[in-house]
Backbone:
């Protein structure tokens, strides 16, 4: 057993044992540690969809995470009621502190400037193990967080399992196009990272999955192979499936609210790309009240909030628990699933936001600018680590097996405003002061 695993075993034994036996009080402690962490606080100044500073109304990564936690707890409450007569499901459904801890964790690893920043860091790290936001989340909660010297937040095993969206390693799933280098540093969209955790966390993955049978462990880490793009993980744990639905609802519905409030979408596109396809799905709760949604969503903020809340409620009520017979352990067998027509309606909402907001030239221009700043910061810090890195990161850099990972961790931890200030401090002659700490 390696040293990290040995330390974690002793900690887990003190805090309640394996996945099935951990008391609820430990999940309350997990949630508290996440709430009071620097990583969660930093999300208040990290981009969700729209850039921080454009308005005081719309959502940041922090408010998004709070909404995911609230929706996740609502899903669990609904499922507890729906499956009140199924003792086994009742036993394995996550308690409120657990699902809230998982939900609050889910975006901790996202770097400044949203998804564009993630692509930029992966581009700079591709020869040193890559970068992926969900993988960075695991690094934070299991290694970098402030609650223990070497185990991060020192969370319970089941919380770590729930946060683990992709139980596969970078080296197992990475598969870039053969001509990836031909597009230069100004167009890095092809450097989209694979959905994974980084190889540096292989031992943490081993520890999380240790209680499962060998057959379950092997099956859980199986891949969907692709010849011309990154391979993909096939499975997720029960708690993760709940968190991901909550995340999708928050993205598809609450980010729609932001887009409507900021007048980034118009009724013509809404009717053609969302309303008409919903009606084409046939009779359902949303299609029967489509005029209510048309009027309320494009009215004042109180009317819009009424429609948004009703839409969230509709989606939550259409979640069921299904079973994957490929596994023996209930935490892998049970899966929360959004059923039809809610599944199709949520996909329409997500596609609408993706097309008219995320892929709009205005948002893409800001994303491009953030990517250029991150690449330039990474390059100059890599060339001058003992001159420009903060002192604590210089010490880590000197002792690291993978020094570039230390630079990556530092940049990923910055908020949008911190990264912008650092960029101007280094590259704008009229900016910067010795009183501004790195």
Residues:
């Amino acid at each position: 057993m390696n040293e990290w695993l040995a330390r974690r075993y002793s900690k887990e034994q003190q805090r309640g044992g394996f996945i099935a036996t951990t008391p609820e009080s430990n999940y309350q402690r997990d949630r508290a540690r996440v709430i009071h962490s620097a990583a969660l606080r930093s999300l208040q100044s990290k981009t969700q969809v729209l850039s921080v500073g454009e308005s005081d109304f719309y959502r940041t990564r922090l408010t998004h995470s709070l909404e995911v936690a609230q929706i996740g707890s609502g899903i669990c409450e609904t499922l507890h009621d729906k499956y009140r007569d199924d003792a086994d499901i009742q036993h394995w459904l996550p308690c409120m502190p657990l699902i809230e801890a998982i939900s609050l964790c889910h975006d901790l690893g996202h770097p400044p400037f949203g998804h564009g920043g993630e692509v930029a860091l992966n581009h700079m790290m591709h020869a040193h193990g890559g970068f992926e936001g969900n993988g960075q989340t695991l690094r934070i909660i299991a290694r970098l967080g402030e609650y223990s010297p070497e185990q991060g937040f020192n969370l319970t095993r089941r919380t770590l399992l729930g946060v683990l969206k992709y139980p596969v390693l970078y080296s197992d799933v990475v598969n870039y196009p053969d001509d990836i280098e031909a597009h230069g540093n100004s167009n890095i969209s092809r450097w989209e990272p694979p959905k994974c955790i980084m190889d540096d966390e292989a031992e943490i993955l081993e520890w999380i999955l240790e209680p499962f049978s060998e057959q379950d462990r092997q099956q859980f880490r199986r891949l969907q192979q692709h010849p011309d793009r990154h391979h993909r993980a096939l499975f997720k744990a029960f708690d993760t499936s709940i968190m991901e639905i909550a995340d999708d609802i928050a993205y598809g519905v609450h980010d729609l609210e932001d887009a409507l409030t900021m007048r980034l979408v118009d009724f013509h596109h809404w009717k053609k790309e969302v309303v008409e396809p919903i009606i084409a799905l046939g009779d359902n709760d949303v299609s029967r009240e489509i005029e209510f949604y048309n009027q309320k969503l494009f009215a004042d903020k109180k009317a819009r909030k009424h429609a948004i809340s009703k839409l969230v409620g509709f989606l939550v009520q259409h979640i069921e628990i299904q079973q994957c017979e490929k596994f023996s352990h209930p935490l892998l067998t049970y899966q929360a699933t959004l059923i039809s027509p809610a599944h199709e309606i949520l996909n329409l909402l997500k596609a609408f936001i993706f097309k008219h907001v995320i892929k709009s030239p205005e948002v893409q221009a800001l994303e491009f600018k953030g990517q250029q700043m991150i690449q330039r910061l990474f390059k100059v810090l890599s060339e001058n680590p003992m001159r420009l890195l903060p002192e604590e990161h210089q010490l880590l850099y000197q002792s690291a097996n993978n020094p570039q990972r230390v630079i990556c961790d530092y940049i990923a931890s910055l908020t949008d405003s911190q990264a912008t200030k650092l960029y101007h401090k280094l590259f704008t002659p009229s900016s910067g002061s010795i009183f501004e700490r790195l």
The two ends are 38 Å apart (CA to CA). Residues 362-427 form one domain.
